[in-house]
Structures are given as C-alpha cells and as structure tokens.
Write a structure and sequence with these properties.
Chain A: Pfam families: ABC_tran. Chain A: This is Putative phosphonate transport system ATP-binding protein. Chain A: One of its GO terms (molecular function) is ATP hydrolysis activity. The complex is a heterotrimer of chains A (256), B (363) and C (278). Chain A has 256 residues and is of the alpha/beta class. Helix content of chain A is 40%, strand content 26%. Chain A contains 10 helices and 10 strands. In chain A, helix 4 crosses helix 5 and helix 4 runs parallel beside helix 6. Chain A is globular, with a radius of gyration of 18 Å. Helices cover 40% and strands 13% of the residues of chain B. Chain B is globular. Chain B has a 4-stranded antiparallel beta sheet with strand order 1-2-3-4. Chain C folds into 2 domains: 220 residues, Bacterial phosphonate metabolism protein PhnH (Rossmann fold); 45 residues, no CATH class. Chain C has a 7-stranded mixed beta sheet. Chain C has a 3-stranded antiparallel beta sheet with strand order 7-6-10, with no helix packed on it. In chain C, strand 11 and strand 12 form a beta hairpin. The longest helix of chain C has 16 residues. The radius of gyration of chain C is 19 Å and the shape is globular. Classes of the chains: A alpha/beta (256), B alpha+beta (363), C alpha/beta (278). At the A-C interface, helix 2, helix 4 and helix 5 of A face helix 5 of C.
C-alpha cells in the first residue's frame, strides 16, 4: 500500500535556533498519528511545515494525490497547494476563531468549502450544512447564528464540521482540545473519535495532552528540542516508554 | 405635474459666486496678500508644500488664500496643479549633511560637534495667549551669532563609527516614483518613505503616537532633528556636470531605535527616517516612527497586528487628498443605488408579510 | 484656470499614452484590474477622477461626449465633468445617447442600446469586488489569480439565509468571459444584463489606481445560485412622464404628505420618448 503521506528529513530553523529537524515518517490511509511534546518542542512548527503553512528549510512532504499520485507538496506550486488545502486537506486550529469566519453564519462557515469547489445550489449547500451540524451535535436551529454567539466547545465542533464537509483525506489538528474545559474536552474527544472511526480519516494530531492521543492516535511520536526522541504504537509508547523524556512525560501525567 | 429638475448648471455657477464672496469676507477689512500669508503663516505654507509635494511658497500661499485657510483643500489645489507640470528630470539626492542648520537638536547626546541649536522653536514657549499680538506684532530683532563655517555632522555617524547602528545600504538604483507609478504592495522602503512624506500630518502623527502607546512599540529616541536649507543640484547632460538650481528648506529626523539582534548580526541600534519640506518637525518625527514600525519584516521582528506595522493599512490611508475626496463623495447623489435598495426592502417586506399572513391563516 | 495653459483634454500626452496602454491591457484581459499611475485631477478623488482620466485618454477632437450621473445629464457632477471637457478639450457634447461617441457614466447604463461605434466609460469607487470580504490587496490579488471565488458565494449564501433573497441590489458582482470576477461599479443590478453589449466598456478607478474593461460582445454573468437565479429588478411602475415600462425608475417625493411619482432615471430616454409622442 502507498502511504498517504511520506515525510522525509524535514527541518526548519529560526536563525541559529532549531524549530524541528530530522523528522521522517509515513502515514498510511486511515491512520491517526499523534505528535506529543511540551511547548517549544517543535511539534507545532512541524505540523505547520507539513500543512504548507510554513516553508521548511529542508526535506520533503510527499502526498499521495488523487490524480497525480505521490507529489512533493513543498515544491508544488502555490495554486496546487491551495487547491489541496481546500479539498483533500483540512486544518483544525487550536483556537476556533483562527479557523472560522466569525462574521459569517454557521451555515455559511460549513458551506464555504463546498462553494469554493464549485457547488452552486443553495438548497444542497444548506442541506449539507444542516447534516453536518447534526453530526457535530449542534442544534440545526442555530444554522443562521454567527459563531460569536456559540460557546467555546460549539465553536470548536463547528470548525471541525467546516473542515470535514468536503470529505478531506488528511486532517491536521493543532491542539484541538486546548483551551476548553475538561468536561467540554471529553465530549469533543468522543465526537472526534466517532468521526475518525466512521469516516476512516487519516489525521495528524499535535497535542501536549496524552489523554487525547490515548483516545485517538494509532501511532505516536514524542518530540523534544525539535527532534523525535521516540515513536511507535500509541499503547506501546505510553505503557512502556523507552526514552527518559517519554518516561518523564508519562509519569507526570500519572501523578495528576 | 412634475418636471425633471433642470438647472444644475445655474446652481453651480451661483454657488461658486457665493463661495468667492465668502472667501473675500467683509470687504471693509483689508485683503490678505500672498506675501503676508507666505511670511506670517509660514508653517501652514510649509505643510501645504510638504503634503502637496511641490516646493513653491508663493503657490502654496495662493492655494491657502483660495482655499479660505482649509489646508487640505489647499494641498489639493497644489497637487492638481503639480500633476500638470512637465518633468524635466530628477535632481541629485540632496546632501543633508551639508545643511545650513537653523535648528539642530539631539535627544541622545548632551552635546556633539555642531552643538544643540534650538532655532525658532515653540518647544519652550509657555502656551499663553499673547494679547499684545492682537494689537500689534512688531518684534525687536533676535540676537545673532556668527554662522558655523563647517558642515554639521549627523549624530548617527558617531554611532556608526562604533558599529552601534545598522548601516543603511547605499544604492544607485532609481527608486520607484509614487507620482508616476501606481502604488503596489509590497512597497519597498523608498516608496513607503515617499508616501509618508506626503501623507497627512494628522494621520501620520496618530500612527506614530499609537506605536508609542504600545501598538508595535519600537523604543524610539530622536537621534537628531535638523532644520535648514540645502542646495538642490541637477545633472545637466549637455554640460556633463551638476549645477545648483536652487535651495529648499527641509526638516530631517533620524530616530535611534533598539532591537534585539537578528539571525546574523549582533545587537545594533536601528533607525527610522523622516524628511519633509519646510519646517515641519512634528511630521518628520512622526514619519520616522512610522517608517521604523513598517520595517518589522526586514529587521526580523514579529508582526504584532498593530496598525502602524501594516503597510497596506498605513499607505492606503495616509493620503488626505484620496481620503477627503472619497469621504466627501458620499454627498453626491446615489438615487439609483438607493432606489434599488428601496425596491428590495419593499419586496422582502412584502414577502415576509405574506409569509406571516400565511402562517396565521394556517393556525 | 487658463484653458490655453493645458494640453488637449487636460492630461499631457505622456500620461495619456500610459493610460492608453493600461486600457489596451485591460481590453486584452477582460475583467482584470490593471494598475495604472492615476494622476491628481482638479476634482476630488471619488468624484470621477478615474472615469475622467480614461475619458481624457480616449477622447479625440472629433468625438462627441455625453456625461451622465444617475442616468441624468443634468445632475451637478455630470454638468461639472461635461464643462471640464468642454473647456479643456473643446469637444462637442450632447445629451442624446445615440449621437455620443464617448459616454462617461456614474451608476447607470443608458437604456438605449449602444453600438460598436461607442465607448462607455464608468466611474468606479471601489474596483475590487472582493474588498469587503477580504480587505488585503495582496490577498485579493492572489484570490483572483487562483480563481478562488468561493468567498463571493459565501456572501450570497449569507444574503439568502438572512433575507431569503440575494440582497445585493447594486454593484452586483459579475464574472467576465468565464474568468475574472468583476465589480460592475455601483450600477443597479437592473443594468447588469445590458453589459453584454456591442460598445466598449471601460472602467476607471482614480483613487484606487485601477483600470479594467469589458470588450464588445463579451459574456458577462451575474453570480447566483442555481436555485436562486439572478433577477434584474426595477420598481413595479411605469414612468409617470413617458409611460415607459422597461426603464429603470427614480422615485420622486412630491409633497409633504409623501406623495410620489416614478420617472425614468435616464433623462434622455424619457425625453426622446415624449418627443416621439408629441
């Protein structure tokens, strides 16, 4: 089977400081990869390099496109990359505000990607928006409300709906539960797990919260100072950590 | 019976006649001469020259008179006039190092070669209305000192000798010309400075002030502020050398700003720059602060979301002639657009009422 | 102003050549906004400086100029611009749509069908149709080059979801020749279908320094949804002066009691119809 994403020797520097370096991995269709580490470990830099938001200084990010097969997205033209990011890719930001249009209704937010790829039937767009509100457990009666009237948890669920409506093949998530109350986090995680399983999504999730990867990720990479210090199956890494730093991470969670 | 309104032409003529009368005011009061405006309202003249981008005190005085003292209107008259003038060529870059300074101060050094020269400044006046001026404005002559023979060096040169301030790269390349090419983004520094130099004093001041209040603060010191006259020289191809074609009065401000060091360089001060026609120091200092704020990218700083860092925001809105024209155009008729909105609102209301009636009938 | 001191049609020949180059480029790439070095004109920005510069670069001494604002020849700004060209270019002027070779307009397209011998010059306040969705020029330019026009439909979607109909009544966005989304200037959407015409259409935005164009017989499609198609609407009346049922109407308040009447916004059209009857 061809990997959906092949990451090879990605490096990003900020002057003399290392953002991330020497990162390589494969992601297969239907697989969820978790990237954990404390803040400053380079996990968000890595995610932004993978998703095309930052240009890496070295390395390749090869995506298995629908029409041309595996293509390096780092060297691909901007129009092509933008096309990818509104069709086959999705990006869920930590802060829903960064991923939503706050002055556009919930329905418009969900419908935007459909319209961007050429859907020109209002009724159909609205039906899809309603369907997705239901899937992320938002009352359909709120379809014409703006996200500014929503709670933090609802905004995050709306952002997820907006991203998934076009059936992307790869979802990038940056701390999707960060900044939410614990009870709200649990519900969101539950929802995400359901969606990932039902849609067979491939995803890369960056988080500092081990509970998130425990629930969602098949595989895990642990980052420290811009490098991957340990990787493997999620349960294996969490239950039997080999690297000292991972042991520290896991034990600090257990103490909580 | 309604007859479509005619007579716009007559109305305009009458309005113009009335305007001329109002401009003149009470005819029992002596009329202002251009020389009076040029000599006694010289800071207004300076501002009109600076933002009008035309160095001609007499024309600026005429514009102020014609505009009834409305300086933006006067700037507008000057801009509209200058755009029709043929362009013979470009002067050499003026050498502000050779400026004959009327005023030269530094906030960074207590003293420096050339000294601190206050010049004709409001700075240390008490802002008390001087009722004597209401009666008569005769003043005794100010004391005179012997003029300085040698040129006054720039303060930043002293910092530069120690490598303490970032050098600005010299270039022989002709900068893009804002008055001859459309403003396109991203704009380079030369273009930004051009735009700021003729930008609205109030707008640039507000932007500069916002950086001081924490919206992209850049810790500015007035390294030097100098006002005086410089020679303008032009290369004459037929002669093969440059000749002096005149003198202009300029205000120049260089700010010294801190920064933390970049990828490749040890910590150094950086600078902001302002250069304006005439004695216009508020504008020159403001310009230097905004120039510095706009340089965040080249200096490897973060974009903090501040308006003064946003090149498109600053440059697109600093021109008061563009701004006032567009603002005032909403006085023009918009019947047609309004009519279409009117029809739409009526239609939507009708449909809404029908829906409500329908629902009530069903209940 | 001493008329002799200025070149034909005010602008110097070099400037006119620069504007003509921009116009030619605009015609070659229909709907694309060509940056040009807009000059200060003796009228304020926002009052038609773009249209005036395009007209100045287009006019020849043999031309016959018509200037309208809100469809009418006699509105103050139309009078002022017409006088400007009478003084600086000395060209003949007319109020008759059919007799004009160059027509400068603000906010309307004349009712009478234009021919291939005519040029229609629009005054444009904001040339960027995406401006109010995305304020940044650098971003909107990218959106145009990549044809990322989804956001435009989000706006229309919002209209329908909030009001039950597309609530853009003027400056209704169009797609030109299947490529660029373009702002037709603030003409009422009633005029949009007329944009597929035989005459050359030039758009000048002075303050924003842009010129764009629609060549003759070019496809101009008003954006819409399949199930909410574009509608060119007008007041549901006939003209109280000439009886026209097919023209765009202005509503005029007649008295303190709010009495109203509806009259053609295109004064020449109305006048011509009344003459024909008399």
């Amino acid at each position: 089977m061809t990997p959906l994403l092949q990451v090879r020797d990605i490096e990003k520097r900020y002057g003399a400081r290392i953002g991330c370096t020497d990162v390589s991995f494969d992601l297969y269709p239907g697989e969820v990869m978790g990237i954990v580490g404390e803040s400053g470990s380079g996990k968000s830099t890595l995610l932004n390099c993978l998703a095309g938001h930052l240009a890496p200084d070295a390395g390749r990010v090869i995506f298995d496109t629908r029409h041309m097969g595996p293509v390096d997205t780092v060297t691909m033209s901007e129009p092509e990359r933008r096309m990818l990011s509104r069709t086959d890719w999705a990006f869920v930001h930590q802060h829903a505000r960064d991923g939503l249009r706050m002055s556009v209704s919930a329905g418009g937010n969900i419908g935007e990607r459909l319209m961007a790829v050429g859907d020109r039937h209002y009724g159909r767009i609205r039906a899809a928006a309603l369907d997705w509100l239901g899937r992320v457990e938002i009352d359909g009666a709120r379809i014409d409300d703006r996200p500014s009237a929503f709670s933090g948890g609802m905004q995050q669920r709306l952002q997820i709906a907006r991203n998934l409506v076009t059936g992307p093949r790869l979802v990038f998530m940056d701390e999707p539960t960060g900044g939410l109350d614990v009870s709200v986090q649990a519900r969101l995680l539950d929802l995400l797990r359901g969606l990932v399983r039902r849609m067979g999504l491939s995803a890369i999730i960056v988080t500092h919260d081990l509970a998130v990867v425990r629930l969602l990720a098949d595989r895990l990479m642990v980052m420290k100072d811009g490098r991957v210090v340990e990787s493997g199956l999620t349960d294996q890494v969490l239950d039997d950590p080999q690297h000292g730093y991972t042991q520290l991470l896991v034990s600090s969670v257990l103490q909580v | 019976m309604y007859v479509a309104v005619k007579g716009g032409e007559r109305a305009i003529e009458n309005a113009h006649a009335w305007l001329a009368e109002e401009r003149r005011g009470d005819t029992s009061v002596a009329e202002l001469s251009l020389a009076q405006i040029r000599e006694q309202l010289s800071l207004a003249v300076n501002r009109v020259m600076a933002e009008g981008s035309l160095y001609d005190p007499d024309l600026a005085a005429l514009a102020i008179k014609q505009a009834r003292g409305d300086l933006i209107e006067a700037i507008f008259l000057i801009r509209a006039y200058r755009t029709t003038l043929p362009r013979f060529g470009a002067s050499r870059a003026v050498d502000t190092g050779a400026m004959a300074c009327d005023r030269r101060i530094s906030a960074t050094f207590k003293d420096a070669p050339g000294g601190q020269v206050l010049g004709p400044t409001f700075d240390y006046t008490h802002r008390l209305l001087d009722f004597k001026l209401a009666a008569e404005g005769e003043v005794p002559p100010a004391p005179q000192a012997a003029p300085r023979g040698e040129p006054t060096p720039h303060i930043t040169e002293f910092l530069g000798q120690e490598g303490l301030i970032q050098p600005e790269p010299e270039s022989e390349a002709a900068p893009r010309d804002l008055t001859r090419e459309p403003l396109e983004f991203p704009a380079d520094r030369a273009l930004r400075l051009q735009s700021l130099a003729r930008g609205d004093e109030g707008f640039v001041l507000g932007m500069a002030y916002s950086t001081q209040r924490g919206y992209a603060r850049n810790h500015a010191f007035v390294g030097e502020l100098r006002i005086g006259r410089v020679a303008v020289e032009m290369d004459i191809p037929e002669l093969g050398f440059a000749i002096e074609i005149g003198e202009v009065e300029l205000t120049e401000c260089e700010t010294v700003n801190q920064f933390k060091g970049s990828k490749t360089e040890p910590p150094q001060f950086t600078r902001g720059y302002g250069l304006v026609f005439g004695q216009s120091e508020r504008k020159a200092i403001s310009m230097a602060l905004v120039d510095r704020a706009l340089r965040w990218q080249e200096l490897g700083e973060d974009f903090l979301g501040a308006a003064a860092q946003d090149e498109e925001f600053v440059l697109s809105h600093c021109d008061n002639i563009q701004a006032t024209g567009f603002l005032e155009h909403i006085k023009l008729p918009h019947y047609v657009d309004f009519q279409s909105e009117l029809e739409l609102v009526r239609k939507l209301r009708r449909e809404a009422e029908e829906r409500i009636a329908h629902r009530e009938a069903a209940e | 102003m001493t008329e002799q001191a200025y070149n034909f049609a005010y602008l110097d020949e070099q400037t006119k050549r620069m504007i003509r180059r921009a116009i030619l480029k605009a015609l070659a790439v229909p709907g694309y906004q060509v940056p040009f070095a807009s000059r200060e004109m003796p009228m304020p920005y926002g009052w038609g400086t773009g249209g005036v510069q395009v007209s100045a670069a287009t006019l020849t001494p043999e031309d016959r100029l018509k200037v309208i604002d809100q469809g009418a020849d006699d509105t103050t700004n139309a009078v002022s611009i017409r006088k400007f060209f009478e003084r600086t270019a000395g060209v003949a002027t007319t109020e008759a749509t059919q007799e004009a070779t160059v027509i400068q307009t603000r906010h309307r397209i004349p009712e009478a069908e234009l021919t291939e011998d005519q040029i229609l010059v629009y005054q444009v306040p904001i040339p960027e149709p995406l401006r109010f969705l995305e304020p940044r020029e650098t971003e909107t330019r990218k959106m145009h080059s990549l044809q990322e026009y989804g956001l435009m439909h989000v706006k229309l979607y919002e209209d329908i979801s909030q009001h039950g109909a597309i609530s853009t009544a003027y400056a209704y966005p169009v797609r030109v020749a299947g490529r660029y989304v373009m702002d037709p200037s603030p003409i009422p959407k009633f005029d949009n279908p007329k944009m597929e015409m035989a005459a050359i259409q030039l758009f000048g935005a002075g303050r924003e320094q842009r010129i764009y164009a629609v060549p003759p017989h070019t496809r101009v499609v008003s954006l819409d949804f399949e199930d909410y198609p574009f509608e060119a609407t007008r007041a549901d009346h006939v003209c109280d002066l000439c009886g026209a049922a097919d023209s765009y109407l202005d509503e005029v308040i007649m008295d303190d009691a709010g009495g109203r009447m509806f009259v053609c916004s295109d004064t020449d059209y109305c006048h011509t119809r009344r003459e024909a009857v008399a």
